[in-house]
Amino acid sequence: MTPLLQVNGITKRYGARVGCADVSFDLWPGEVMGIVGESGSGKSTLLNCLAGHLDPDAGEVLFDTRAEGPKDTVTMAEPERRMLSRTDWAFVHQNPRDGLRMGVSAGGNVGERLMAVGARNYGEIRGNALDWLGRVEIAGDRVDDRPSAFSGGMQQRLQIARNLVTGPRLVFMDEPTGGLDVSVQARLLDLLRGLVRELGLSAIIVTHDLAVVRLLADRLMVMKSGHVVEQGLTDQVLDDPQHGYTQLLVSSVLQV
Amino acid sequence: MSAGRRQERQAGDGGEPSMTEQAYNFAYLDEQTKRMIRRALLKALAIPGYQVPFASREMPMPYGWGTGGVQVSAAVLTPEDRMKVIDQGADDTTNAVSIRKFFERTAGVATTERTPEATVIQTRHRIPEAPLTENQILVYQVPIPEPLRFLEPRETETRKMHALEEYGLMHVKLYEDIARHGHIATAYAYPVKVEGRYVMDPSPIPKFDNPKIAGCPAIQLYGAGREQRIYAVPPWTAAESLDFEDHPFEASKADHPCALCGAEDSYLDEVIIDDTGGRMFVCSDTDYCRARREAGHTGAMGAPYETEAQA
Ligand SMILES: [Zn+2]
After folding, report:
1. Residue B122 C-alpha to ligand 1 middle, in angstroms?
2. Phi and psi torsions of A80, nearest 5°
3. How far apart are CA A192 and CA A160, in angstroms?
4. Domains of chain A in sequence order
5. Pick from A212, A214, A220, A222: which is nearest to A243 by CA?
6. Separation of CA B235 from chain center
7. Range in A83-87, A151-155, A224-228, B142-146 the model is least confident about
8. pLDDT reported for residue A251
9. SS3 of B283, please?
10. SS3 per residue for chain A
């Protein structure tokens, strides 16, 4: 089997400051990788390098494309990378406003990726949108409402539906539960866990919240000051942390 | 598109030029500006539907009057041309009359209201009903050239979307239409895909006119003055109106014959005729209507043409 994603030596600097340094890992199909660390640890920089939003200064990100097998998305031509990001990739932003079109109905938001890859039957697009609204627990009668009329939790669920509707093979999530009330977070986590299991999603989730990775991630990377200080199976890392920094994180001394 | 042949009186070879029409170059714009616009036009014709930036000039009229169209017309006019200007199909609105007078004065070209006799037709919001020919140029006045702006205001992004043919957003707009109104309610500026490649805003013509863009023998040029864009559809070019399989494009119009000439195939304006709410539907293309009445066609409320002329 080929890893879905092979990350080799990804490095990003901002002038003299290190964003992330020499990060390497493999992500296997159906696997969820959690990346944890405090703010400023480089985890978001890393995620944006992996998802093609930032150009890394060094390293490669080999994605197992359908047509040609593993290809470096860092050096890939922009049209191909943009095509990936609206078909095989999905990106869930922390702030749903960054991932939704606020002036477009919920149905239009979910349908956009379908239309972007050539869906031209209104009835089918709408049917798909309704199906996905149901899956993320949004009532069908909200399909024509704009996201601005939704609560924060609903907006985030809508963003997830919009991303998953084309059956992406890899989902990037940046603090998907950040900015939500604790009770809303719990519901969203349950929903995400259900979708991950049901769809066999491969995902990379960046978060500062250990509860999120405990529930969702098979494997865990701990980052500090741009470097990976520890990685392994989630339960192993959380229950028996080896690195001093991870121990602090787990003992919640550093909980943000 | 040969250069104007009337010579510009050079400032400096006899003091200040007087503020008569002789102070202007042929068709107002100087030759260098016209060359710049013609280069943009050639590029636009070479890449049908692609928006070419150009350095729009101040014109002695407000932007809302179609300065983009005026500059394009100025760049393509020759002294032998016969010009027609229409506004919403009519030759006699203030806007149409002013632009026609502008070119009569600055270019000295002949003008006409008869579509078949015109060689250059500048239009706002309509395509004439009479079939156009290979000997004609249709110049559209365009307020907003970017069809993607409705959902994506960032120009850096829309440019990329055109370059990469990422046109899913256009269908999101149509989806929203159907979700809200039960059908595609977009009635004007209905987007077309030109020659299977670039999606283009055909300017605010009624969608009834969209099929006339496709396979048209005339050259179609689009000028947006404020936004400094030129685009074009060369003769005999495909232009497909976007739609859904289960909501196909329809070139709709009011379901009436023209009350004056009886035409059933022309785009109609609804006109209020008295203060008790009486109304009638008449051709929006006034020249088409007149020509039909001249040829003896009469609608339900139209007197025969000769009688009308004598009244
Ligand atoms: Zn008529």
Report:
1. 21
2. -70, -40
3. 9
4. 1-88+169-183+190-256 (3.40.50.300), 99-167 (no CATH)
5. A222
6. 15
7. A83-87
8. 86
9. strand
10. CCCCEEEEEEEEEECCEEEEEEEEEEECCCCEEEEECCCCCCHHHHHHHHCCCCCCCEEEEEEEECCCEEEECCCCCHHHHHHHHHCCEEEECCCHHHHCCCCCCHHHHHHHHHHHCCCCCHHHHHHHHHHHHHHCCCCHHHCCCCHHHCCHHHHHHHHHHHHHCCCCCEEEEECCCCCCCHHHHHHHHHHHHHHHHHHCCCEEEEECCHHHHHHHCCEEEEEECCEEEEEEEHHHHHHCCCCHHHHHHHCCCCCC
CA distance, residue B152 to nearest chain A CA (Å): 9
- Say if residues B261 and B302 touch (Cβ distance below 8 Å): yes
B185 and A CB contact within 8 Å: no
* Number of neighbouring beta carbons within 10 Å of residue A68: 8
- Facing residue for A115 by CB, picked from B175, B178, B245: B175
A140 chain-B contacts, CB cut-off 8 A: none
CA nearest B182 in A: which residue? A122
Q: Which residues keep their CB under 5 angstroms from ion ligand 1?
A: B 258, 260-261, 263, 283, 289
Does residue B172 sit at the A interface (CB-CB below 8 Å)?
A: yes
Q: Which residues pair with B99 in a beta bridge?
A: none
Three-class secondary structure of residue B270 per DSSP: strand
Residue with tokens 């109304």: B279
Assess whether pLDDT exceeds 70 at residue A12.
Answer: yes
pLDDT score for B302: 77
Q: What is the pLDDT of residues B254-292, one digit of tens each?
A: 899 999 999 999 999 999 888 888 899 999 999 999 999
Which residues of chain B lie closer than 8 angstroms to A102, CB-CB?
Answer: none
CB contact under 8 A, A120 and B245: yes
ipTM of the complex in this document: 0.91
Is B309 exposed, middle or buried (CB count within 10 Å of its CB: 0-12, 13-18, 19+)? exposed
Of the candidates A154, A126, A135, the one whose C-alpha atom is nearest the C-alpha of residue A198 is A135
Q: Which residues of B touch A113 (CB under 8 A)?
A: 168
Report d(CA B224, CA B204) in Å as an integer. Answer: 12
Considering only the beta carbons, identify the residue of B163, B172, B246 that sits closest to A112.
Answer: B172
- CA A99 to chain B, closest CA, distance in angstroms equals 13
How far apart CA A234 and CA A216 sit, in angstroms, is 9
Q: What residues contact residue B100 under an 8 Å CB cut-off, 6+ apart?
A: B83, B84, B85, B91, B111
CA distance A207 to A93: 11
pLDDT reported for residue A178 = 86
Q: Per-residue pLDDT tens for B202-245?
A: 999 999 999 999 999 999 999 999 999 999 999 999 999 999 99
How far A159 CA lies from chain B's nearest CA (Å)?
A: 16
Using the Cβ of B169 and the Cβ atoms of chain A, whether some distance falls under 8 Å is answered with: yes
List B120's β-bridge partners, or say none. Answer: B83, B137
Q: Is A101 on the interface with B (CB under 8 A)?
A: yes
